[in-house]
Amino acid sequence: MKSRIVFLFVGILFLWSALAMRAAYLQFLPNDRLNSLQNRQFQTKVTLPARRGAIVDRNGRDLAMSATAYSLYADPKIIENRKAAAKKLSKALGQSYESVYAKIKDGNKRFVWIQRMLEQGKADEIKSWEIRGLSFVEEWRRVYPNETLLAQTLGFMGSEGQGLEGLELGYDQHLRGNQKKVMVKRDARGRPLINDGLMFIENPEGNELRLTVDSDLQYTLESELANAVQEFDADHAVGVVLDAKTSAVLALASAPTFDLNKALKSSAEHRRNKSVTDAFEPGSTMKTLVIAAALREGVLQPNTKFFCENGAYRVGNKVIKEAEAHEKFGDITATEILAVSSNIGTTKIGFKLGADKLRQGLLDFGFGQRLGVDLPGESRGIVQALPWKPLALSNISFGHGISSTPIQLANAYAAIANGGVLNTPYIVQGVRDSETGELSETKVKPIRRVLTPEQAAQMRAMLLGVTTLKNGSGKNARVEGFMVAGKTGTAQKVDPNGRGYLKGAYVSSFAGFIPANDPKFVIYIAVDSPRKSYYGAKVAAPVFSRIASYAVRKEGIAPLHGTLAETNVKNLNSIKTAINQKAALEKISREIATETAVKPAEPQIVTAAQLDKAVEVKPGEVVPNLMKLTTREVLREVSGQNIKVKFLGNGSMVSEMIPAAGSTLPEDGNITVILK
Q1: Could you tell me which of 348, 536, 575, 620 has the fewest CB atoms within 10 Å of its CB?
Q2: CA 391 – CA 382 distance, rounded (Å)
Q3: Average pLDDT, whole number, for the chain?
Q4: Cα separation, 412 vs 357, whole angstroms
Q5: Cα 397 to Cα 78, 183, 293, 362, distances in angstroms
Q6: What does the alpha-carbon distance between residue 515 and residue 480 come to, in Å, rounded to a whole number?
Q7: For the chain, what is the radius of gyration of the CA atoms?
């Protein structure tokens, strides 16, 4: 009997020891399976975004920021009267009873979102009901304090805190920081452990995005574009303002626009950033780049003359005409061709340059390719592949049969304004790290040199003629007290549903920079389908003028008046250095200074002869390129120059030159051309 008791005691002691060892094993040694079971029983996981970083302009003004919001969730299992709760919630939230009840009717569910991003007043109302099973999570909702300002560029966010368009999408990783997975703790009965109906969490912050944009200039641009759409009954308008030296984006807009705080209620058409995503035929603003390519290749000088066929020039089975039927130009210089926007003159320049060199020149200026701007959705535009038929070459020379985006065209003009370097446009000035506070700044990214400084200076002087010559097309772009350079454009609008062009539909544009003698701002304006007028000179040029006027005055650039005129005249040296004959331009400068000594300067009207002298290269220095010209064209080419041509052979076209084109002209001015 005694032995049985001892045996039983030992057995019980062994069992207790085994249980104690097992308990110690479970308590002190890790077990993934048991940990998982514990977590499922006492916690539920909720993923919450970090506080999104702010987006500010170049001066630190808020463009996008994060404000506190409250997201409502439910534990259906512990809601006592789910139908009554659904009725109250549907009324308070503006949702249908059926949709709310569908979320909470399953009593086996332990977590379901009811609505995200509620304002504090609405959250306080629901908390006052004291319905067990309804709780809140504190989150951050995106707020755009300026509503429509820079809307297409900033973009917006989805309901889950992800960037959907614009900078919110392109810089989503920087702005959102690291998402946080929150474990909602429960008690032994599975009820959420909350405090006063709110789950408090501490969110990490995303990085701050600092832009190159100036909010005041952006507002002015948007206002002017909206006014242009209304005044001319247009479909929409786009505008780009770049820093002339760096191609930093100072303003970028499309009109009509939309309210960022109600983005999903607006149309996709209004949300699209057309300055970057839309490519269209640029029209005559492209003539500047064609002439620049010809100047680069030595095909012409600013004073080189071309016969413009008195208004009608047959190319293949088509007759090329000027924009206006009454325009009938004869022998005019390249400077005048640009100023009066001659289609025939530019066609002849294109023919003289040739399709290969013209296409390469356009590619070098950034057309037909993405520039790498730090905004999503950038379009390449279209530069047709070779070979080009003569009619295609003619059309492309004056901006048809080719497409470009507004930012491509503005950036090409910036290359002329800054001395010949094509840069990558950019809008993000830097990213500020939320932890260290360090700002990593964006550096200027040159792509390639497209013109020598001298060639760029000559192009700036030629573009000055567009606004200053008596018959220049850009008179309405002038800004009182400042020198303006630029080019008008009026392009037929391509029919998106078929071949050819829409009847009576045009894109009116103006591209240019200010001040012309020391460019600070490059501005491009395009108005789509204006119905009350359609010439770029009447529609887009005045918009350019008002925006340019605001920009230079806000920047504090002194106009040409009083004693300040002398300082501004000295600034013209950057142009005069590139021009061999300085006397004429100095004369023009003195006239501007004299005129403005008493009152603010009116934009000067100069003659074609004055401007030609200002930009011409002295005759007799370089042998002009006469290759592939007819006898008649050779005589026109050398007309007015100290050059004597001797013709050999019985052909119709120049096949050889002695001395060669581009070489030093003999002192006697004699050259020999061989015709074949």
Answers
A1: 620
A2: 17
A3: 83
A4: 17
A5: 75, 65, 11, 10
A6: 11
A7: 35
Task: From residue 92, give the alpha-carbon distance in Å to each of 78, 121, 550.
Answer: 21, 11, 48
Phi then psi dihedrals of residue 404, to 5 deg: -145, 160
Task: Specify the pLDDT at position 243.
Answer: 97
Q: State the Cα–Cα distance between residues 37 and 370, nearest whole angstrom.
A: 53
In this structure, what token pair is assigned to residue 572?
């013209």
As a whole number of angstroms, the distance between CA 227 and CA 10 comes to 99
Distances (CA, A) of 545 to 221, 527, 531: 11, 15, 21
The position carrying tokens 């008649």 is 632
> Does residue 411 sit in helix, strand or coil?
helix
Whether cis (ω within 30° of 0) applies to the bond prior to 387 is yes
Task: Say how many residues make up the chain.
Answer: 676
User: What's the CA gap between 75 and 644, in Å, rounded?
Assistant: 98
Q: In 577-619, which ranges are continuous DSSP H helix? A: 583-596, 608-615
Q: Which long-range contacts (CB under 8 A, 24 or more apart) does 657-662 make?
A: 657/623, 657/626, 657/627, 659/623, 660/623, 661/298, 661/623, 661/624, 661/625, 661/626, 661/627, 662/298, 662/622, 662/623, 662/625
Mean pLDDT score, 45-74? 83
Between CA 239 and CA 508 the distance in angstroms is 12
The pLDDT of 210-230, averaged and rounded, is: 96
Of 597, 596, 569, which is closest to residue 585 (Cα–Cα)?
A: 569
pLDDT reading at 46 higher than 60: no
Distance CA 394, CA 355 (A): 10
> Rounded to an integer, what distance in angstroms lies between the CA atom of residue 481 and that of residue 484?
10
More confident residue, 553 or 639: 553
Residue 4 has pLDDT above 80, yes or no: no
Lowest mean pLDDT among 29-43, 324-338, 369-383: 29-43
Dist CA 289 CA 286 (whole Å): 5
**Lowest pLDDT segment from 63-77, 264-278, 330-344:** 63-77
- Structure tokens, 419: 């001395």
Rounded distance, CA 66 to CA 55, Å? 10
Any idea which residue has 């009066």 for tokens? 340
Residue 92 token pair: 């308070």
Tell me if the pTM is above 0.90: no
Residue of 148, 129, 171, 175 lying closest to 256 (CA atoms)? 148
Taking residue 179's Cβ as centre, other Cβ atoms within 10 Å add up to 15
C-beta separation of 355 from 386 below 8 A: yes
Mean pLDDT of 36-50: 56
For the beta carbon of residue 540, count every other beta carbon within 10 angstroms.
Answer: 32
Peptide bond into 659 cis (omega under 30): yes
Q: Is 50 exceeded by the pLDDT of residue 588?
A: no
Q: Which residue has the higher pLDDT, 124 or 675?
A: 124
Neighbours of 87 (CB within 10 A): 14
Q: Where are the alpha helices (DSSP H) in 135-232?
A: 151-154, 166-170, 172-176, 215-231
Rounded distance, CA 673 to CA 237, Å? 51
User: What is the rounded distance in angstroms from the CA atom of residue 69 to the CA atom of residue 77?
Assistant: 26
